[in-house]
Write a structure and sequence with these properties.
heterodimer; A: about 290 residues; mainly alpha; B: mainly alpha
Chain lengths: ~290, ~325
């Protein structure tokens, strides 16, 4: 009897393990299958490089959204990474224990704050501030506001993982370096950071993955105009004030009322996003695995 | 020094003088070098303190702003804000009671679906898959696929889960915009969280527990059920509470599967809106930023409470391990 139960349970557990994996493939298959008509009718090349998205006229090109997603992510990385990595080094090496004990849980907590809360803060505080920058047709909604919001959102992710990577550097490395008479700072720059480099880069790449996948906060502050971002006036720097739309935003905003080819094109957008994210995450995992060896 | 004070030939003595001068200069340079290195360390550490503090300040600023602004709104008609339903439509009037209840329902349903699957998968991977290794090529390969799938799933952005949920549950299975569709999509989202946390917790159970139990003649399942799972329980619970946090704060998935009705859901097949979703509608459709702030404050407080729960559970976990 006990053995029968034992065997039964084993099969049951195996099924649940399989079901969990099945979900991944189900997601892949479903999105691919729904997106296939769009790829077939529009063609992969035209779909990716077309800059016009007019569902009413059956024109579907997602170049604007790809550029929007990439630019806003680059902006967030430029703004967020120095702060995040600096904070990680600070927490792992410099901060006295009592500061660390307060800051670490706080940063972990902030990683769990809903993205709509950050989006709301962006709408209420950042957008009016950005709107003050004198430029023609500056609405405040756009790449700059979105990048700042995103930078704040990926900060806890990058800091947490980068700090773990720095902490994982063997103690002997640090002691060996200090024993040679270097200062703590020289040890950090010359030994600890190089040793933790792949982990820190992995943290940044995971941050990029999060940034690319962020949806609601982006819809709230980026303006959602379907244009390839361009400078607003003569000053090329005003490109950061340009409105844009992300791949994620394109999906969320239009899926509920899309039908036919339009719906399929939305799923095709999802396929592109999926491919992009899997590529980015595999890169991070490769680096993490390199560190483990 | 005294050793060098022997009578020497003048030319040799001159050489010694030069040597001493050299050493003195060297020592001076050394000192300057050390001073310089310490100075650069001070500057660098100052900058690190600055980045650390700025990073924390920025994050605290955002959260504190929302909580304080929101608290002002909540306080005005406390506790009615929490106890009355939203008026709906384009009016921002009313409270958030139905959204709190919907959030609660959705959390229960999602966790109820995801926990058995996730914990089951983790138990299989840790307790059963290990012994398979080397015995059967097919199953060990399958286990590799399962692990790869879980890792892949963890990195997929939530809107993809939403898209999937919309295509499969809302459209293909005709469940419509409903609690059930949203919970199924949400379960896919939190599955990797639960699997990973449970796996870690199970791996942390000392080997001797299992051996001791098996030596008493129990079957493997009896060992898992009576010995391993209880020992791993705090870690598993941490994973579940973490998932509760994910569901409470998730918006994108439910935006495309839950429908957004402001009424109280009456069955599994009726739509609704969670607090996070309500915040989004208030901010984007109604532009009622004050009410949105109020909802945001309630949301943040909920997340803080969930985090406190996680901390207390994991503290008990470490205490338990130390005691055992």
């Amino acid at each position: 009897m006990r053995y029968a139960v034992d065997r039964g349970v084993k099969v049951l557990l195996f099924i649940s393990a399989l079901a969990s994996t099945f979900v991944v493939f189900l997601i892949l298959i479903f999105i691919l299958q729904e997106g296939l008509p769009a790829f077939r009718e529009i063609g992969l090349g035209d779909f990716v490089t077309g800059s016009v998205w007019r569902p009413g006229q059956e024109q579907f090109g997602i170049l604007a959204m790809i550029v929007g997603s990439v630019l806003v992510t680059v902006g967030a990385i430029i703004l967020g990474v120095p702060l995040a990595v600096g904070a990680a080094i600070f927490l792992a090496e410099v901060a006295p224990p009592w500061v660390r004990d307060i800051v670490r849980p706080a940063v972990e907590l902030l990683a769990g704050i809903p993205s709509v809360v950050y989006g709301l803060f962006g709408m209420v505080v950042l957008v009016p501030l950005v709107r003050r920058i004198p430029a023609p047709a500056n609405t405040g909604f756009g790449l700059l506001s979105a990048s700042i919001v995103l930078a704040v959102m990926v900060l806890p992710t990058i800091t947490n993982i980068a700090e773990d990577a720095i902490r994982a550097v063997p103690r002997e490395y640090k002691e060996g370096s200090l024993a040679l008479g270097t200062t703590h700072w020289q040890t950090i720059v010359g030994v600890i950071i190089p040793a933790a480099r792949s982990g820190i880069i992995a943290a940044i790449i995971l941050g990029i993955g999060r940034a690319l996948g962020e949806t609601m906060a982006m819809i709230m502050v980026i303006g959602n105009s379907i244009i390839v971002p361009r400078s607003l006036g003569d000053n090329p720097l005003t490109i950061v004030l340009s409105q844009a739309r992300t791949l994620t935003g394109n999906i969320a905003v239009e899926i509920a009322y899309a039908t036919g080819l339009h719906e399929s094109a939305i799923f095709a957008t999802g396929v592109m996003l999926f491919v992009l994210i899997v590529f980015v995450n595999s890169l991070a995992r490769l680096l993490m695995r390199g560190r483990a060896q | 020094m005294s050793k060098e004070k022997v009578t020497v030939h003048p030319r040799v003595s001159f050489g010694l003088e030069a040597h001493r001068a050299d050493r003195k200069a060297l020592a001076l340079r050394e000192q300057a070098n050390i001073a310089c290195r310490h100075l650069s360390q001070k500057v660098a550490f100052g900058l690190l303190w600055l980045t650390g503090l700025v990073a924390v300040a920025v994050l605290v600023l955002v959260v504190a702003y929302v909580v304080l602004q929101g608290w002002k709104v909540v306080r005005v008609d406390f506790p009615d804000f929490l106890l009355t339903p939203p008026r709906g439509g384009l009016s921002a009037e009313g409270g958030i009671s139905t959204t709190i209840v919907t959030t609660f329902y959705l959390v229960l349903l999602t966790i109820g679906i995801a926990t058995p699957l996730g914990v089951g998968a983790a138990v299989y991977l840790v307790e059963y898959a290990g012994e398979m290794r080397g015995r059967s090529g097919l199953i060990s390969r399958l286990v590799g696929v399962v692990r790869f799938g879980v890792e892949l799933l963890a990195g997929v952005p939530s809107i993809i889960f939403g898209l999937f949920g919309y295509a499969l549950f809302v459209s293909a299975m005709h469940l419509g915009f409903s609690l059930l569709s949203a919970a199924l999509a949400g379960a896919c989202l939190v599955l990797p969280v639960i699997i990973r946390a449970s796996e870690e917790a199970l791996c942390a159970v000392p080997r001797c527990y299992r051996e001791g139990s098996l030596a008493l003649g129990t079957t493997q399942w009896q060992t898992v059920w009576k010995v391993v799972l209880p020992a791993a329980l705090p870690g598993i619970i941490t994973g579940i509470v973490l998932s509760v946090g994910r569901v409470v704060s998730e918006t994108a998935v439910f935006y495309v599967t839950l429908g957004g009705s402001h009424h109280l859901p009456t069955s599994l097949f009726s739509g609704g809106r969670t607090m996070a979703l309500h915040l989004y509608y208030l901010a984007m459709d109604t532009r009622a930023f004050d009410k949105a702030m109020g909802t945001g404050a309630v949301l943040v407080v909920t997340i803080v409470l969930i985090n406190l729960a996680i901390n207390s559970v994991s503290r008990r976990l470490t205490a338990g391990l130390k005691g055992g």
